[in-house]
Amino acid sequence: MPLNTEVLKLDPARPAPDVIARAAAVLRAGGLVAFPTETVYGLGANALDATATSQIFVAKGRPSHNPLIVHLADANEIDQLAAGWPEAAARLAARFWPGPLTLVLPKRPAVPDVVTAGGPTVAVRIPAHPVAQALLKAARVPIAAPSANASNHISATRAEHVLKGLGGRIPLILDGGPTAGGLESTVLDVTCNPPRLLRPGLVSPSEIEAVIGKIAVGPASSCEQDPLDAESEDAAKAVVRSPGMLARHYAPSVPLECIPAEDLARLEALRREHRRIGWLCFGPAPAGACGLSIIEMPTQPDGYAAHLYAALHSLESAGVE
Questions:
Q1: Which of 7, 107, 121, 216 has minimal Cβ neighbours within 10 Å of its Cβ?
Q2: Nearest to residue 46, comparing CAs of 24, 63, 65, 64?
Q3: Does 222 score more than 70 pLDDT?
Q4: Parallel, antiparallel or unpaired: strands 196-199 and 186-189
């Protein structure tokens, strides 16, 4: 039976304590709450409650072999989750926490297997968003939270995106306005030597290497499993250490192609087929690009990141093909 999904608006800089207390009570009671972080909106549950975190997978339609990231209010709470704290982790936490960097660490037995996809590690970060911070402090439990969208679909950077994808499946959404970062956190496995980048994100490899030296990027080593397609029969047997490693993620429901900005031949071919086309482009559209649903995107990487998912949601809602 569908739930009545309630949306509560908050000042993102100064979230109302009574609203935060209400959301924290839902989490402590084993329920789900969607909330903003500085990256994207997350769908949260008590990370130490296996029954509660199992509901995340049901609500999202998420495969059980795809692990969750656990959020803490403060790095001093890391002992609740991690069985080890490498020097590289300490240095990175001092530089990037709170912020959009997730660290993969050896897990404690208290962390349910449903959170880690049965693996020996747990992915942890400290979010910087005031709403996320307030919620974590009020709930007084670690919060497991993947992006608040249906599995494999475009991540939510606004409360209306969450409602579009998960309305009727979750009880509560905290609306803190658009998220600033717009893309997921960077995930780094610090149980490897050297540490290995598992998912690119808002913290770049060069920023990480400036703190701890060379990291591994690219094909998997013995430290991790190769990414597997979510549809594969072998996927359930693999131990994936981080979200964002399956074959399909963060995707719109319509085909998306990357083309050079100056190459209009592909656009013309689609237009001759009378297709409804959406185009994210840099700067004003060039001559000959009429008849398209066009969104002009920022040319700077951080601005592009902040607007990307929202732009894809907008074009999808406009009914492009």
A1: 7
A2: 24
A3: no
A4: antiparallel
